[in-house]
Amino acid sequence: MIAEIICIRELNDEFRKTLKGGKVLITKGVAKLSVTEQIAIMEKVKNFNQFTHDNDPNGEHDFGAFDYCGIKYFWKIDYYDVDYLYLSPDPSKIAVTNRVLTIMRADEY
Description:
The chain is an alpha+beta fold. Helices cover about 30% and strands about 25% of the residues.
């Protein structure tokens, strides 16, 4: 179980930092921002490293929250099957998992 969590964490970190290996979605609140602001927010997501037991209780590095220009933002990684229809049967296995990173304003949650 611990090895599986470490594998999921490493896959999530790689995806979040490179944006390769899944899809990235932004909500309307993020889409309304300027391109410069969207890039700044994406950099905050990619460089996020304030994982604690409170925001990462399972150790998977699948959620984060941060402030940008006085507004709270969330990001979340979810695990889907290869067709993006159902949840992944095993998020530690690339062959059966597609990752989706969603970035949103906290007030859109």
